[in-house]
Structure formats: structure tokens, C-alpha cells
Amino acid sequence: MSAERVSPAPERAVDVTPASAAEETFQGYHHVTHVISLPGPAPDGSRVRGKVREPRGNLLWFDRRCFFSEEQLLADLQGRVDGIPELIPAGDMRLQRFIEGRTLAARHRSGQKVPGEVVDQVLRLFGQMLAISADTLDTERRCEIADRATDPNSSEFLERLIAFAEERVYRRNLADFQSLFEALGVDADSFKTLRKNVSDLTERPFCLLHADLHRENFVLDRAGRLWTIDWELAMFGDPLYDLATHLYLMRYPEKQRDSLAERWSSLAEDVRPGSAKNWESDLPKILDFKRAQSVFTDVIRATQILGSGARFNWPQLYREASKVHGALLGGAEPLGLMGVPTLRYVMTSLVRWHRERRDRDRSSGQGNDHRDAEIAFP
Predict the structure, then answer these.
(1) In the predicted model, is pLDDT for residue 60 greater than 90?
(2) Domain with 40 in it
């Protein structure tokens, strides 16, 4: 997803689906997902439901997107990757089938051990993606050829991601967020330090990456089968990046994390020799990038959540400030931060930024009236 404002216009399917038709609605950060019943049973006799996603308006998205259509990607992956949503015709459109079950996060919270049978299925997913290279998948891509890293140049691949974070997340939003970033100790020099800390990756043959494998994007059905959803960030690149992103987002207990990484390395070499080359030395570098990336995305995301309503969202202040504080602790070393402010200071900085934003909006006659955005900590 790119760091651009999402159009407030809902996806086309929302326009033709009455709100009353939704049987369930899920509130996500980027989308509101409506679950609707579709006519006819599935081959196994179960009911068939589809999902319609409505993008939230005026949000910033922070990740690159490679493919034009998630639905087309899923269609092209049928039979090659197990446990992905099928596409259901609905008039002249195709809807993703809604996976009936519970997310892995609902069953096993972040930081908790994941059952072995689930880990086995995660590794099977990795193996299937490792076998898919760009020349074996014809799904139309949105990125220009000149913007794609050269397979198998893993350093170039990571540099493209760093450049995206620097140009599209940090610099493009600097006019709005510079004072907040500076208050938290982050500036343009942070990217110079980051590049030094994550340079010189080993070449590995590129493959298909999901790039967002966390507990909310895994669904377990009643039979214990693992389904993988939300493929909109999928791309081609260094296979180790997908492992690093998965480990970073999943927060496995240390012993299980290390075991999974070892098993992944053996699997990767079996599927495509060279895919795990020097993984032990490069994995910490990519994890450092993920920690650094979170600093920029979590800071901006916190301001959006706290200021999304007509008034400042006081009940969420501690939670969002804690996320930012945790991101700063994790990103301090790769970004070369001189120090990490206290949680209290992060809370104060977020409120100060909103107060300054409110005052600017008032002077220009724009924005919401955050009359209660004042703060005094005991």
C-alpha cells in the first residue's frame, strides 16, 4: 500500500450492495469489511458468504503495492497456493469468499506459542510461495519495470523499500509531521544510519512474498485448516524478507521463533537452492529494517487514530503512545537515535502535535474543532 490518501469513494461492490445486506461488519484500520450472504451452497453443503471491503477515507497507506488486483492475484494462485480465498462470481464482479473461522490472533494472542500443526501449515505456505517466481506468474503488476529490484539482488530490493519509506512515508508527510518526528528524536539522518546498518545483503533468488503474514491474516476454520487472507501487499523479492516480516509481526516466543527460522532455512534450500544463503547473518539486518520502518508508520498512524473523530480520542492515547514508544525502543539502534523519550513524553508530544494542528486548522478555517485537546498529566 502506498503512502497516499485513499479515495473516500467505496469500492464498486459497495455501491451495489445495500448496507442492510451485510450480515457482519469488521472495522479495520484501512478498510471496513462487510460480509454478505451469496445464493447457493458450497459443494460441501456449507453456506457461501463473500466479503466486500470499503476503504476508509483520508488515511495514509504505508507500503508498496505490486499487483493491480488482489482478486486477480488470488485467481492466478488457485491450485498453486493452498488455503487462500476462492473467487465467487457476483454479476460482473468477483468477490472473495469469506473464510468462516477465527483469526489466529483470536485463538493465540501476540507473543503466545502457536500450535505445531499451525506452524507446519505456515511452513507449507512458505514452501509454495518459494516455488513461484516472477516468470511463472502472469498477474498484472502496477510497478514499472524500472522500479523493480533486479532478481536476485537482495540489497537492491531492501534499498527500494528503504527509499519508499524515506520518500513516500517520511518526506512526503514532513510538512505535517516534522515537529512530531523531531520531538521524538527522528530526522532525515536516521535513514543514513539505517542504510549503513542493513547494507550488503547476500543475493537470493526472488520469489512471491505475501509481505504481511501476521496473526490477523491467518484464519483457522473448524477443521483446523489454516487460511491466508489479505494478499494486497504481495510482491516479488528476497524470500528472507517474508520470513523476517513474519517473525517481526508474529512475536513468537524465542524458542519457537528460532525453531521456525531453522526449519524455514532447510525448506527454502530444498525448494530453491540459494534461497536461504547466509540467512543467519542477513535476518537481523532485515529485522532491523522492520523495526525502523515501524517508527515512521506507527507515529503517523497514531496521529490518525487519535484525531479521527470530531474530538481528540483520549481513551486511545495511552495505547497509541505505548505503540509509538515501543517502536522507538525497537528502532533506536538501527536508526541511530541518541536516546528514546519516556512514555510520558511521547504522550505529551502526541497531544502537543494535535493541539498545534488544531490551531493551524482554526487559523485557516479548516479541520475539526478539538476543543478538548488540552493536556495536564498529574
Answers:
(1) no
(2) 1-61
